[in-house]
Structures are given as C-alpha cells and as structure tokens.
Design goal:
The protein is about 25% helix and about 40% strand. The protein has two helices and four strands; from the N terminus they run E-H-E-E-H-E. It has a four-stranded antiparallel beta sheet with strand order 2-3-1-4. It is globular and about 35 Å long.
Length: about 80
C-alpha cells in the first residue's frame, strides 16, 4: 500500500468546494481545506505508485478550481 499527502493550491474562494469534491475521489482517505501556502491537503492511498499517480493526474488534477498539486509520498524509514 502506497500513501501520500497531496498539497493542493486552488483558485481564490474555491478551497471548500475543491476539498469536498476531492474527498469523494476513490482512493482519497481525507481532504480538508487549510490555511498557508496550500489551500487543501488530501491523504490518498493506492496499491502501487502508478495507481497513486493515476489518482492524482486523472482524478484530482481534473477537479475544477485546482491550479497546482504537489504529491508527497509517505515513507517508512
């Protein structure tokens, strides 16, 4: 199982709507609007890194109002 945090920047005033939509994407465990340099932080999980990439590129980045994403995979050192 691969897990990652996806940091999301949105258009002004779209954070709540984006968080709600992203939170319903299959593979996304949680999505919340936050303050700071990013507007939404989501936690996602998938069976493989490729599957995780597909969630981000094919599903999350297609949500209206998202301007940029940064995917941070969880590592266990």
């Amino acid at each position: 199982m691969v897990q990652a945090y996806i940091l999301i920047q949105t258009e002004v005033g779209k954070a709540s709507a984006v968080a709600e939509i992203v939170g319903k994407v299959p593979g996304v465990v949680q999505a919340e609007d936050v303050t700071g340099p990013y507007d939404v932080i989501a936690r996602a999980q998938a069976d493989t890194v490729d599957d995780l990439g597909r969630i981000v590129v094919a599903k999350i980045q297609q949500v209206d109002g998202i301007t940029r994403t940064l995917t941070c995979p969880v590592v266990h050192l």
